[in-house]
Structures are given as structure tokens and as C-alpha cells.
Design goal:
The chain is α/β, with parallel strands linked by helices. It has 16 helices and nine strands.
Length: 336
């Protein structure tokens, strides 16, 4: 499939980041889902059979890549895995940070759960034939922040920029290799999540995120394989220059920003996806509230030819399927 033509054609169906609620459809736990490639593929297929989406999007699990580097991860039966701490001690002095960054080993593809997630995409492609299959990966600054300490990552950009660049270079090299493995497994593209860039000023966002995202996208995007860049930070509306600099085929925004404002700032020929609140509406809302929120968003943004309806971020596990169904029903009613 020519994915560049696909993403730039009139897409008439929503593309929510919808994968973890497959646990309800399969009757399994999140812990089981993230540990088994067959269950992930079956879950993606179950979602594709239930939800009339334009594309199938795999798990947005931002712990996978950090775990491969050695970060400690918390697992549970009903929540998305969480990175619990850095790989490099943030309390080291500057010289020690430099030494630790230089010594940081880039994992082999297959380390941790990366092999499971790659195999899941390969199996999903065998099951899902009627729409593109997009894998999920973390962005470079979001990974680097997990390796050096999320809380201090922005401070290190100001006080120890060389340290951050060394970690970012290694994170970027790993992400390129990881996405290449997804591409070889048959993925039609990736959703690359860079939420931590939302901590940065426009200048820092360009230097420590935009430039590295562009390197990743340039290395792998082509006519048959696309990037959808995701940023759910509340500063996305003021860092659009660094976001667009990534060169992705499409951009996905979180519910922390005004989607109408984003569409006015983004190039009109670039597809922009968003941004129904995943926690407040999909997880905690009702069929009535999500239908209203969806129609309100469509009334404001639906006239933009580059707008594609989506969730604001990954829809949480255990989000009621009645709410998810109502989201699609609202879209059908609006379109009719």
C-alpha cells in the first residue's frame, strides 16, 4: 500500500489510539496482553472487528524501550506498565553523568519485551487485511527522559546539554533500529509518541526533540511506511515549529490543547488527528457525554479537510466499550 497516498487521501473513518481495551474483548488482563504476542495480535483483530477504524493501532506502551535499556518497570493487571525510575542516577555530578552516558549500552532488538511487540505486529498483519496496521513506539526525548529521570530531564537540557545529547543520540539509534524491525515485520507505519517534549520551551523542543525526531523519520519514512507523530503536551500549540520539523506524514494531538487552534497553526495539507479526552470521556464518561464531546469537536474541526477524528491519547484499559461504541456512533451520526 502507498501509505503516503493513503494518509493524504480523504480518510472517512476515525483513527483512535485504541488497543488496550482489547483486554475486555479477550477476557484477559493487561499483564497477559503485554507479555504475549499472539494475544496482542488477537486483541488488535478483535478491536478491528468491533470498531470501524481507518487503521489498526497497536499498544502505546511507553515502558517497552526504557525497559530494554534496563529501567525498572511496574506491571499490573489493569493498568498500562509504568517506568519507575531512571537508568542513570540523576544525583551524579556532571562528569559522572558524562561517563555514564558514554557507557550506556544500546540494547539489541529483542531485549526486554521488544521482541514480543515486533512479533505481535507480524501476527497482526496476518489477521488484519482491510486496513493499515500501525505499531507504537516512543519518541527520542521521551525515551531519553526515562533514562536520565523524567523530572530532571528539562533541567539537564539547560545545565548539562552535552549529557542529554549523548543520551539522545543513543536513544535515537535504538529507536531507528526498533522501528526498522517493525517495518521488516510488515507494519505500515508507526505512531511515535513524544509527550515529554511538552515540558520544553520552543527553542529547547527544537534542539532536544525536533532534530532527533527528524533524524528518525528521515531514516525510515517512505511511500510504503509512514510516521504519525504524537504529542499530548499542553504546550503543543506553541511548539508547532519543532513538531512539524519532524517531517512526519501526520500529527496526533492530545486533549490538553485546543484542536481548533492547532489546526489553524498547522499546515493545511498535513493530516492532524485528535483529540477526545481518553480519561475523562472514554474511561470515565458515559455514552451520552462522549457523544456530545465528539459532536462538539466535529462541529468545530470537521470542516478542516486535514482533520481526522481520534482520541487525545491512548484509550485506557477497562474503558467501557459502551463509551467507545458511542464515539463511533457519534461520528456516523455527524457524517450522515
Amino acid at each position: 500500500m502507498n501509505m503516503k497516498n493513503w494518509i493524504n487521501s480523504p480518510i472517512t473513518k476515525p483513527i483512535p489510539v485504541l488497543s488496550f481495551p482489547s483486554v475486555q474483548l479477550l477476557g484477559i488482563t493487561v499483564r497477559e496482553l503485554i507479555s504475549d504476542s499472539t494475544l496482542q495480535a488477537r486483541g488488535m483483530k478483535a478491536v478491528a472487528d468491533r470498531a470501524d477504524t481507518a487503521a489498526s493501532v497497536s499498544l502505546m506502551d511507553l515502558s517497552v524501550e526504557a525497559e530494554a535499556f534496563g529501567a525498572p518497570i511496574r506491571f499490573s493487571d489493569d493498568e498500562v506498565p509504568t517506568c519507575m525510575g531512571p537508568v542513570i542516577d540523576p544525583d551524579l555530578d556532571e562528569d559522572e553523568h558524562e561517563e555514564a552516558a558514554e557507557a550506556l549500552e544500546i540494547p539489541e532488538i529483542g531485549a526486554g519485551r521488544t521482541g514480543i511487540y515486533i512479533d505481535a505486529i507480524k501476527k497482526a498483519k496476518e489477521l488484519i487485511k482491510d486496513r493499515p496496521v500501525l505499531a507504537g513506539v516512543i519518541g527520542p526525548f521521551s525515551l531519553a527522559g526515562r533514562l536520565v529521570d523524567v523530572t530532571n530531564s528539562m533541567i539537564f537540557c539547560l545545565t548539562e546539554p552535552n549529557y542529554m545529547h549523548t543520551v539522545l543520540e543513543k536513544a535515537t539509534e535504538f529507536i531507528i533500529s526498533y522501528i526498522k524491525a517493525y517495518k521488516e515485520a510488515g507494519a505500515d507505519g508507526v505512531v511515535m509518541a513524544e509527550p515529554l517534549a511538552g515540558l520544553l520551551s520552543p527553542k529547547l523542543a527544537m534542539e532536544f526533540s525536533g532534530e532527533y525526531c527528524r533524524k528518525i523519520v528521515s531514516a525510515l519514512q517512505d511511500d510504503e511506511f509512514i510516521f504519525v507523530y504524537h504529542n499530548c503536551g499542553n504546550t503543543a500549540s506553541v511548539t508547532t515549529e519543532s513538531i512539524v520539523h519532524a517531517g512526519a506524514a501526520a500529527y496526533h494531538f492530545g486533549n490538553a490543547v485546543n484542536m481548533e487552534e492547532i489546526l489553524e497553526k498547522m499546515p493545511s495539507d498535513v493530516p492532524c488527528l485528535g483529540n477526545i479526552d481518553p480519561a475523562r470521556q472514554f474511561r470515565g464518561g458515559s455514552p451520552e457525554s462522549i457523544k456530545k464531546a465528539t459532536k462538539d469537536l466535529l462541529s468545530k474541526c470537521g470542516s478542516h479537510s486535514n482533520f481526522i477524528l481520534s482520541s487525545g491519547c491512548d484509550i485506557p484499559p477497562l474503558s467501557p466499550w459502551e463509551n467507545i461504541d458511542a464515539f463511533f456512533e457519534a461520528y456516523r451520526e455527524w457524517k450522515a
